[in-house]
Amino acid sequence: MLFLSDNDVQRLITMREAIDAVEEAFKELYLGKAILPERTTLMLKNGSISQMSAYLEEANVAVTKVFGIFPKNAKYNLPTTVATLLVYDIETGKIAAVMDATYLTAIRTGAVSGVATKYLALKDSKKVGIIGCGAQGKTQLWAITEVRNIEKVYAYDKIEGAKKAFSDEMSKRLGIDIIPVDSSKDAVKDADIIITATTSADPVVRGEWVREGTHINAIGSYYPHARELDTETIVKSKVIVDLKRAALEEAGDIIIPIKEGAITEGHIYAELGEIVSGKKPGRTDDKEITIFKAVGLAIQDAAVAKLVFQKFVNRYLGNFYGGKMGRGK
Q1: pLDDT tens digit string along 3-52?
Q2: Catalytic residue, candidates 27, 33, 45, 65
Q3: Topology given in CATH for the domain delimited by 2-105+298-317
Q4: Cα–Cα distance between 285 and 64 in angstroms, integer?
Q5: Which CATH number fits domain 122-293: 3.90.650.10, 3.90.1170.50, 3.65.10.10, 3.40.50.720?
Q6: Which of 35, 83, 141, 183 could form a disulfide with 101 if both were Cys (CB 3.0 to 4.6 A apart)?
């Protein structure tokens, strides 16, 4: 059994590779070549612990991830999301690898937004507004810069000092101009692409702030009672989700407007797999507002974990594993 740390994962994979792997995973899901059970979640006093599994037939990988979301972790200088992932030998059921999955979760969540942005954002998008400057925010912005030529970013976070630290770090890493701003409104009002990566239970984006032609990646909240986007934003936009049944169970951004009677389930235009597989077009009008609402799927973890595992084996273990997921000779 292998153990791979967050540092190992970070060293072994790039965002471009993760985006490509995740896009293929969504094609597999749409084509019926994936097994994806529903996520289970324990709600605790200070956060939640969830378990999620997936099998990808074409990628030949099966995984289970256990992760927690604890919004108060910032005061302990810990990431909000903490996770561990198991990679199985699909021939024997034994565990082939255990991975720290905090970084893996961040990069695969960034990657899926990269895929969505590739198909939904205006081709000439230059400005990004980001709300939520934690670990997820960093990989979200990184992914956007892989698929669009971004020149300026407006960054906001309610935690004192977070937006400045984010701006200093990411401007050096990505080589673009990142400006800390004083409010959510200031972050999004001039943006071509909006990223929400918060743990907020209440909307951080108002429809009146969002311009025509904007694309929004809303990835921070997946609880039924919590949302990052207000009802007006949802009503005026074309909504794409990672998985419809999951969004209708977990995504407050969609569930709450439905309960209010502002929209019906039919307001969801498509799942991401339908877009990347070509069943439905993505953006069809330069003026439409598009939203990608993600609750997070284990197929993303499986796709990225397979890539990390295989690269580790190829780089350090040669032919010992025989090219299979943990199956030695």
Answers
A1: 999 999 999 999 999 999 999 999 999 999 999 999 999 999 999 999 99
A2: 65
A3: ornithine cyclodeaminase, domain 1 (3.30.1780)
A4: 39
A5: 3.40.50.720
A6: 83
